Amino acid sequence: MTEKTASTHxxxxxxxxxxxxxxxxxRWFVRTAxxxxxxxxxxxGGRRGLWQPKPxxxxxxxxxxxxxxxxQERSVILGYYEDGANLVxxxxxxxxxxxxxxxxNLQANPDAIVRLTDGTRAVRASVAVGAERARLWARWREMGxxxxxxxxxxxxxxxxxxxEPRDDT
Length: 169
Known about the structure:
Strand 1 (12-14) and strand 2 form a beta hairpin. The longest helix is centred in the first third of the chain and has 17 residues, at 27-43. The chain has a six-stranded antiparallel beta barrel. A two-stranded antiparallel ribbon has the order 1-2. It has a domain at 50-165: Roll (Pnp Oxidase, Chain A), CATH 2.30.110. Residues 1-18 have low confidence and may be disordered. The chain has helices spanning 3-8, 27-43, 101-108, 130-142, 147-151, and strands at residues 12-14, 21-23, 59-66, 73-83, 86-91, 111-116, 119-127, 159-165. By secondary structure, it is of the alpha+beta class. It is built from five helices and eight strands, in the order H-E-E-H-E-E-E-H-E-E-H-H-E. The termini are far apart.
């Protein structure tokens, strides 16, 4: 990776499925988009910023975890789709290197609260492995984003995170 590519996070890769180059915007742009998205959610009192998944498109959810170092609540807006009663997301960190903080928090304490357009759910996180991971990854692939090409931008495998409903009684 060249110095310029490393500093702007605009790495590219040849996607096996399409042969097209995939690029990621500079890290400052990705982080700004995240801040704006959260601000829209906050300013509208949650009326904007979340949407339900459609048959061939992902939706967005707000996940609240407990910080592994601080013990304080931490919230993030993530893409997801439904797999039966479970919610499925990717720990991709905007396709940059490293694990996202929310996933590190869930690894330390897998219980979380998810806010969807139709309400709130208590969930427990786990990572999909083996045949389950392959099946869930294939579903992401069907949604049209070149997840294989983007995943090649990372040196480590992107975790597929399954959020299963939990009963708090």
